[in-house]
Write a structure and sequence with these properties.
The complex is a heterodimer of chains A (302) and B (244). By secondary structure, chain A is of the alpha/beta class. Chain A has two domains: 2-218, 3-Layer(aba) Sandwich (Rossmann fold); 222-285, YebC, transcriptional regulation domain (Alpha-Beta Plaits), CATH 3.30.70.980. Chain A is built from eleven helices and 13 strands. In chain B, 76% of the residues lie in helices and 2% in strands. Chain B has ten helices and two strands; from the N terminus they run ααββαααααααα. The chains are: A alpha/beta (302), B mainly alpha (244).
Chain lengths: 302, 244
């Protein structure tokens, strides 16, 4: 059952087309990624979903409601974390959560949320004394304090150090496990690969691919490459006979097998049957990054 | 209503934590009064001021300091900062109305002005024998309308300024005009008649405040002008205000 349905969304700013033609569905309980380079139209797309902007064309439905007409009802049900939105410097962590909790009919317990997000020791710290990671966690907490059904998180980990980024990822997984559907806007490949159940890859205002991260990779770059050093001389035909293998080449003492599907299992079985040990065995697969380049013709810049 | 109460409470705390601004807006006129009042000559009645002392004559002008500081300076800066930092935008994603925040800011600006006026009047009375406003009703009307005109101008500045810096840049000339014609930079008896007369019609309308303080009913035209400025600037601000 989709909780968000976007079809043929179109949005212009004057002459500039920000979103050309974007369609996707988000299922209940998933982490859905909107991935693309800066300026691809990701933020505009989710802002239309959040009801912050009026589309120039197309349909958006969130929990069966219209983000513009039913804005008041949706604001109770959708938590939004915006890119580059801050809080007053002197506002303390607990005050910010109490304030935002007062906006909702059935808010979460602010004190519990503070503990869950690891801000317990910072509850009386003013906003301008928090680190980047703590500000980001507070911002996520504010998006969650209304007990939303859907949380829209825009560029969640931009500007965080690698450790803070990983901490935030596990936090998002915990939030999803508690039953919240999450829409994640990102231009970090690693983040999309690690977190998202499904992804819409957006480039120049259009969806160029819509699949799981693994699905995207295997669709555009199905080939896998296995490298190893055989313990005894190896007859190439043993491998070329396998239906999964497309090519066998040599690079010095190394054998390089290219293939698709469960080629790794097929190759290791043959080697085992012939009592050949594969030393320094490595499997090389395309990454989401490769898939993105294949799909859009250019690299995501970090 | 619960949300508005919480916004008001939170904003009040933030205002109270901003000690420098609080001092500038609430306590500065009283501090200037105390400094001037320590000079004996300024406490002597003088024919130049209609047999009042300079301190008595100057007290209503000191009230202009607070009105200008709060209305034209502090209010637009806070609002422009909130917009610049995405605070209003973020609020727009919640069930709370950004309008509630605007109203809370106005309530607190008024509270600050009232506190400052009361502090000034009481200290002037107790320390220097300056009589309390002699025409209380007229004084209240002049204060409320003058304040409304300045707050509306402040909102207009906040409405057109994209950032906190540009809000301050826009506010400075307005602030100077208000202070100058309010007789804060130069006591008004030193201004040419023409300029002193202009001051009666520039917000907050120091002539009406002065009249009411000394016991004359403020001139209705002066009050009407303030009301017109308040409505016009307020309407302009409402038309131009952007939440993001």
């Amino acid at each position: 059952m989709p909780v968000i349905e976007v079809s043929n969304l179109h949005k212009r700013y004057g002459e500039t087309v920000a979103v050309d033609d974007v369609s996707f569905d988000v299922a209940a309980g998933e982490i859905f990624g909107v991935l693309g380079p800066n300026g691809a139209g990701k933020t505009t797309t989710v802002e239309c979903v959040a009801g912050l902007r009026v589309p120039d064309g197309g349909e958006v439905s969130v929990l069966g409601l219209d983000p513009r007409r039913d804005a008041a009802r949706l604001r109770q049900l959708v938590g939004v974390q915006l890119q580059e939105s801050q809080l007053p410097d002197r506002l303390r962590v607990a005050e910010a959560l109490d304030l935002y909790a007062s906006f909702y009919r059935e808010p979460a317990d602010p004190a519990r949320l503070i503990d869950e997000l690891g801000l317990g020791a910072k509850r009386n710290t003013p906003y301008d004394k928090l680190s980047g990671g703590q500000k980001q966690r507070l911002s996520i907490a504010l998006a969650l304090v209304g007990n939303p059904k859907i949380a829209i998180l825009d560029e969640l980990t931009t500007g965080l150090d690698p450790q803070a980024r990983r901490d935030t990822w596990s936090l998002i997984e915990r939030v999803r496990d508690s039953g919240v559907t999450i829409v994640l806007v990102t231009h970090f490949m690693e983040e999309a690969e690690r977190l998202c159940d499904r992804l819409a890859v957006i480039d120049s205002g259009r969806v160029v691919a819509l699949d799981s991260p693994a699905g995207l990779v295997s669709a555009v770059a199905p080939e896998q490459r296995i490298r190893f050093r055989p313990s005894t001389p190896l007859d190439d035909r043993l491998l070329t006979e396998l239906p999964q293998v497309t090519a066998v080449t040599r690079s010095g003492a190394q054998v390089v097998v290219t293939g698709t599907g469960d080629v790794l299992h097929a190759v290791t079985s043959v080697l085992a049957r012939n009592q050949i040990i594969a030393a320094d065995l490595r499997l090389e697969q395309a990454t989401l990054d490769d898939a993105f380049v294949e799909l859009t013709g250019h690299r995501l810049t970090d | 209503m619960h949300a508005f109460g919480q916004i008001l409470k939170t904003e009040a705390k933030l205002h109270l934590r901003d000690i420098p601004t609080l001092l500038l807006t609430v306590a500065l006129p009283t501090l200037i009064l105390v400094v001037l009042g320590l000079i004996p000559a300024l406490r002597e009645p003088s024919p130049e001021f209609g047999e009042q002392s300079f301190v008595t004559y100057f007290t209503p002008s000191l009230l202009v300091v607070t009105l200008a500081m709060v209305g034209v300076n502090a209010l637009p800066t806070v609002l422009a900062t909130y917009r610049e930092r995405g605070i209003l935008r973020r609020l727009a994603t919640t069930p709370a109305s950004p309008l509630a925040l605007l109203v809370a800011q106005l309530v607190l600006a008024l509270a600050g002005i009232l506190a400052s006026a009361v502090l000034l009047a009481v200290v002037a009375r107790l320390a220097f024998g300056v009589p309390l406003p002699q025409h209380p009703l007229g004084f209240a009307a002049a204060l409320v309308l003058g304040t409304a005109a300045l707050l509306a101008l402040g909102l207009l500045v906040a409405a057109v300024a994209p950032t906190a810096k540009s809000a301050q840049a826009l506010a400075v000339p307005v602030f100077m005009v208000v202070m100058f014609f309010g007789g804060v930079y130069l006591p008004r008896f030193l201004l040419p008649d023409f300029l002193a007369e202009v001051g009666a019609y520039t917000p907050p309308g120091v002539q009406a405040l002065l009249d009411a303080w000394t016991g004359t009913a403020p001139h209705p035209l002066h009050l009407v002008i303030m009301a017109v400025i308040a409505v016009a600037a307020g309407a302009g601000a409402a038309r131009l205000f952007r939440w993001q």
